[in-house]
Design brief:
The structure holds 3 protein chains of 3 kinds. By secondary structure, chain A is mainly alpha-helical. Helices cover 79% and strands 1% of the residues of chain A. Chain A has 13 helices and 2 strands, in the order H-H-H-H-E-E-H-H-H-H-H-H-H-H-H. In chain A, strand 1 and strand 2 form a beta hairpin. In chain A, helix 7 crosses helix 8. Chain B has a two-stranded antiparallel ribbon with strand order 1-6. In chain B, strands 2-5 form a two-stranded antiparallel sheet. The longest helix of chain B is centred in the middle third of the chain and has 37 residues. In chain B, 63% of the residues lie in helices and 7% in strands. In chain B, helix 2 crosses helix 8 and helix 8 runs antiparallel to helix 9. The longest helix of chain C has 16 residues. Chain C is globular and about 65 Å long. Classes of the chains: A mainly alpha, B mainly alpha, C alpha/beta.
Chain lengths: 333, 427, 337
């Protein structure tokens, strides 16, 4: 048990460190930049206003509102205090609390991305393992295909699926999360509409994750297939079917870490894919915030995305520690 | 080293990727030479009104161009079917089917009418339609519409020779410019003074999409190159320092590397880009920022390579011979990790180009009116205008294809090299 | 004369390299192993001794391919058997193998007892968990392994423990022949001695009937095996008892191999350390004549003409050399003086 405790203590401490670092970065980065948020907002609000007095007045007003006239350290503590109270400020384009906006957007994003990334991960691993085991023609066609699909950015896949299956074939609606003429309610009509709108964003994320994961799994499986234990197990008379299961398990476990390492990029890509479909998740929220120069909202979305990534990585690390005995052993070294 | 280079060149994957990549690169250099002009110029109307195709000045075709006579059987049929619009065909069919239901005429059922066959369709129409025939299921408005349609259809066949006049300003009368323009008259396109070839139509600004695409490809490649160079240089330096020096230096470097492995780079990218005003966000600046947020992987792989090299015999020998650290790094370490660095660099180029595209679609891309990037083209056509609604596939599809080709070719090169350096992965 | 446990007749196998080249790593190898005896096979690395070890199992998969020859285990010819019959009825039960890299021979993510269950059930699907556990515990005791190790993963065991675990797994079904391919090369001297002693104990207890020991360290063989065979370029070049082979090698290659190794035993300590000049022939294109001719200082034009047979010498010895025993002794004597 000593190995496990050490592993988990390490992971928890690391999670806390990254959390603090992420919050600090989220606070400090925009303030370090030449164009501070207030400037950006004033620039947007004061478009067409030529009177410098009015602009200066606006600037000072916003500075007070966001507390930017105070020393940075004080601002930081106010920021942390607000965060702890769940107080994320008020969106000035949508005129409602940022927390409310996030509360409506997060379920859409999580509901879309979590199943999609998991599905892509599982199918990708199966295909990669098959390619490594069968090789030959299967591998020869699958590899270049996966290399191609894996290289497609999420937004590219979204555009392709959208134009083929929605604009040309008309099978699925091109945008939004549900039919706007329906009132959100827990009835069959509404759920069916959600499912219809879910398909294209879902499959575009699934497909690109398959591409990326299958290549990693293939290399990993080939590596495992050449491992000494495979040869030894064979010469001890163990059936190939069983050995393939050994290999699949051993190759798949590190893929959990692989997923943890690539989850940030995947979520980032998926957010832009959401954007293409005007899916009502964080991607579209972020886009609206950026185009409206809505600093409180941008800052909250980036923070929440970072948090989601950090939590996912942490959970994956914990799961990995539970299922792969190699982790425990490595803690003794 | 030489033999490795040879096997890289022999690797089918690498060469395919290399050829695609170099072709794209050469196109961005050659195309502007053979088709000069400002790619950003607004030559057409806004909002995707010009589809891909070759546009011929109508005026110039009439004014002093030699005509040639060709007698092509069926030319009129083609003319008519070209003029008969898709919705007219549908309406003809609609009437015929309704009529067929009422009078029980054989051959007038939904399945038997082929709207693509112009001759047969019009044949049926003239056989059965008359404004005296009363079809029950139609509304009055529809009946009137069909009468108008019939008149229009009759006019379709008034294919007579035309006469073209020009206004004489002195007399105020119309002079005959051509006595006759026959349906058998043709002109040679190369005789026409003004022709615009728009293989990919125009975009929402009315700019030539192909020209802009070539410029955008060049800019995006530049962004990828700059981002890749910045990321690789940072990654190489940190990796070498951490791996070779070790100790506290390594601990600090690894702390930040691990930190930025989990904190997503695109979030940092958004925060930094947002903090720059539009004026400051040039293509190169954006590229540098992308590079600054994507050095983690290179650092990791360089560091682990260097650590395994650090205690090899030839390095120890150099240390014992009193060679300086820079000399050892350059002579005894860099050659061994060169392949990994090049592979990482190739991937960085591709991910840099993709990062710019994603950033641009979020509205934080390079802000400039003098150049275009692949991401900005997508942003303008998809996010900031309505290419989807207009069915203007030419404004975004070619961009996606170029992005795919670049990223596919770079991935192929990378995989090809990977298979050379890790023989286990070979086919 | 004991009962013949293993008889190999003209075994030839090849493996195919990554570059699709054929390498005949085992070429026309014939020998016998009697019950209760241990045979050592020695040779430089790359001579084909590890491939021979695998070829003897009678179970071939890429990149190793069977060409010809017979393998007879305890009177049963396994050469014509179907691969799945061999897998089920021969591997592990008749003939078993301890791989070179015992450190990595165990699946890192499978508990030892689970792996033993897999091995036993591959041959006897009806074996109960309890029987297997009892069997494994008993073998672990002999090999001086703690019972708790059964419930652990390979990654949690030390190097020496992994080595012994592999021995326990390989011999769990009491095979008639145990082939050990340098089972100790990764261990320190004391652990090596222990491993060898344990395998001997297993033989004395009757869990294995005979064994083949493959190594490039001749002194190890002298301590361990009754007979020694020397392999060169995919062929056996000399065989005899351990005493004959170490103190009186006849084939010029065995002689050279002995000379190139410092034997830390009395009487041989002063033998000069002489490396054999030259390199072994390329097995992708072996020479027509004696394969050692290029490196042999006694070679004549005759040696290069055609393949040399594995001649019977006095005292049950065999030697692949055109010279007679007397001619060879004469030559060595002349050289010393």
């Amino acid at each position: 048990m000593k190995g496990y405790r050490k592993y988990y203590t390490k992971k928890i401490i690391w999670f806390l460190i990254t959390l603090v670092a992420a919050v600090i970065l989220n606070f400090i980065l925009p303030r370090l930049m030449p164009n501070d948020p207030v400037n950006a907002m004033v620039g947007r609000v004061a478009q067409g206003v030529s009177d410098p007095d009015v602009i200066r007045q606006l600037y000072e007003e916003y500075q007070r509102e966001f507390g930017l006239d105070r020393p940075v350290i004080e601002q930081f503590f106010i920021y942390i205090g607000n965060l702890l109270r769940g107080e994320l400020g008020k969106s000035f384009t949508q005129r409602r609390p940022v927390a409310d906006i996030l509360a409506t957007a997060i379920p859409w994003s999580v509901g879309l991305q979590l199943p999609a990334i998991l599905t892509g991960w599982i199918i990708g691993n199966l295909l990669g393992a098959l390619a490594a085991y069968i090789r030959k023609a299967f591998d020869k066609t699958l590899m270049p295909l996966m290399l191609f699909i894996g290289g497609i950015p999420a937004f590219g896949m979204a555009v392709i699926l959208l134009s083929v299956f929605s604009l040309n074939l008309g099978w699925f609606p091109p945008s939004l999360g549900y039919d706007q003429s329906l009132i959100p309610a827990f009835n069959w009509n509404f759920i069916a509409s959600i499912i219809r709108h879910y398909h294209l964003p879902f499959w575009s994320i699934v497909l690109i994750s398959i591409g990326g994961q299958s290549l990693g799994m293939r290399s990993m499986s080939i590596y495992e297939l050449n491992a000494d234990y495979v040869k030894y197990s064979r010469y001890m008379g163990i059936k190939d079917g069983k050995i393939v299961r050994y290999v699949f398990r051993n190759a798949m476990l590190p893929q959990v870490t692989g997923l943890a390492l690539s989850i940030g990029t995947m979520i980032g890509g998926a957010l832009v894919a959401e954007l293409i479909f005007s899916y009502p998740g964080l991607g579209s929220t972020l886009w609206r915030a950026i185009s409206g120069g809505d600093y409180p909202l941008i800052s909250a979305v980036t923070l929440i995305i970072t948090l989601m990534v950090l939590v996912t990585v942490f959970l994956l690390d914990i799961i990995y520690g539970l299922i792969d005995p190699r982790v425990k052993a490595s803690q003794y070294e | 080293m030489k033999s490795q280079l040879r096997s890289i060149v022999r690797s089918g994957k690498f060469m395919t990727g290399f050829v695609i990549f170099v072709s794209i690169l050469l196109l961005t250099i050659i195309y502007p030479l053979i088709n000069p002009g400002d790619p950003m110029a607004r030559i057409g109307y806004d909002s995707f009104r010009t589809r891909p195709g070759t546009y011929v000045s109508l005026y110039d075709t009439l004014d002093g161009v030699n005509t040639f006579t060709f007698r092509i059987p069926g030319a009129n049929d083609i003319r008519i079917s070209n003029k008969l619009r898709e919705d007219d065909r549908e309406r003809i069919k609609y009437w015929l089917v309704e009529y067929g239901k009422q009078e029980e005429v054989a051959g007038l059922t939904e399945e038997e009418i082929d709207i693509e066959d112009t001759v047969a369709l019009l044949g049926l129409w003239w056989e059965f339609y008359s404004d005296e025939v009363f079809v029950r299921n139609l509304t009055n408005a529809e009946r009137n519409a069909f009468m108008r349609l019939d008149v229009r259809l009759d006019r379709l066949f008034d294919i007579d020779d035309l006469q073209v006049y020009t206004l004489n300003p002195e007399t105020g009368e119309h002079d005959i410019l051509f006595t006759e323009v026959s349906t058998d008259d043709y002109i040679n396109v190369s005789d026409v003074a003004n022709i615009i070839r728009l293989p990919l139509g125009t975009d929402n600004f009315g700019s030539d999409v192909l020209k802009k695409l070539v410029l955008a490809t060049a800019t995006s490649l530049w962004i990828g190159l700059v981002a890749g160079t910045v990321a690789t240089l940072i990654g190489l330096t940190l990796g070498l320092l951490g791996g070779y020096v070790g100790g506290i230096v390594d601990d600090i470097i690894m702390f930040f590397t691990n930190l930025f492995t989990v904190i997503p780079g695109f979030v940092l990218l958004i925060l930094i880009s947002y903090g720059m005003s539009q004026m400051e966000r040039g293509a190169t600046t954006v590229a540098v920022v992308i590079g600054l947020t994507s050095w983690v992987w290179t650092t990791r792989s360089v560091r682990s390579q260097v650590m395994s090299l650090r205690n090899r015999d030839h390095v120890n020998l150099s240390k014992l011979s009193g060679h300086s650290m820079p000399k050892i790094i350059i002579k005894d370490i860099l050659p061994y990790i060169a392949s990994y660095v090049v592979m990482a660099f190739i991937l960085q180029i591709s991910s840099g180009i993709l990062a710019e595209a994603g950033l641009s679609m979020l509205g934080l891309g390079p802000s400039t009116t003098s150049t275009a990037t692949l991401g900005m083209m997508l942003d303008w056509s998809i996010m900031k205008s309505t290419a989807f609604i207009h069915g203007a596939w030419w404004a975004y599809y070619p961009v996606i294809v170029v992005i795919l080709l670049i990223s596919f070719s770079l991935n192929l090169m990378n995989t090809g090299m990977d298979q050379v350096f890790n023989p286990q992965l070979r086919d | 004369m004991g009962k013949v446990m293993l008889e190999v007749k003209g075994l030839t196998t090849k493996y195919i390299t990554r570059f699709k080249e054929d390498v005949y790593a085992v070429n026309d190898v014939s020998f016998k192993v009697e019950e209760g005896r241990s045979v050592g096979i020695a040779g430089e690395s790359g001579c084909g001794k590890s491939t021979l070890a695998l070829s003897l199992m009678g179970y071939y998969f890429a990149p190793l391919h069977y060409i010809k020859g017979e393998i007879i285990i305890d009177g049963r010819n396994i050469s014509g058997m179907k691969p799945d019959d061999i897998r089920k009825n021969i591997l592990g039960t008749e003939i078993a193998y301890i791989p070179q890299a015992a450190m990595n021979a165990l699946n890192p993510t499978r508990k030892i007892i689970k792996f033993i269950e897999d091995v036993v059930r591959a041959h006897d699907p009806k074996a109960t968990k309890k029987d297997i556990y009892d069997l494994a515990r008993q073998r672990f005791e002999i090999l001086n392994l703690p019972e708790e190790a059964l419930g652990k993963y390979a990654v949690e065991l030390s190097g020496g423990m992994k080595q012994r675990t592999v021995i326990a797994v390989s011999t769990i079904l009491s095979p008639k022949i145990l082939i050990a391919d340098e089972p100790s090369s990764a261990l320190d001297v004391t652990s090596q001695k222990m491993v060898i002693k344990m395998i001997h104990d297993l033989m004395e207890l009757g869990y294995i009937k005979s064994m083949i020991f493959i190594t490039h360290e001749l002194p190890l063989l002298y301590n361990v095996t009754d007979d020694i065979m020397v392999m060169y370029a995919a062929q056996l070049v000399e065989s005899g008892t351990a005493d004959q082979m170490i103190f009186d090698p006849l084939h010029p290659y065995s002689k050279g191999l002995m000379g190139s190794i410092l034997v830390p035993e009395d009487g041989t300590r002063d033998v000069k350390l002489v490396a054999i000049p030259g390199t072994p022939p390329n097995l992708k294109k072996p020479p027509d004549g004696c394969r050692f001719a290029e490196r042999c200082k006694y070679a004549t034009a005759n040696c290069r003409l055609s393949q040399v047979a594995f001649y019977d010498f006095e005292n049950n010895r065999k030697c692949r050399c055109l010279f007679t025993e007397n001619e060879l002794r004469e030559a060595y004597k002349n050289e010393q003086s």
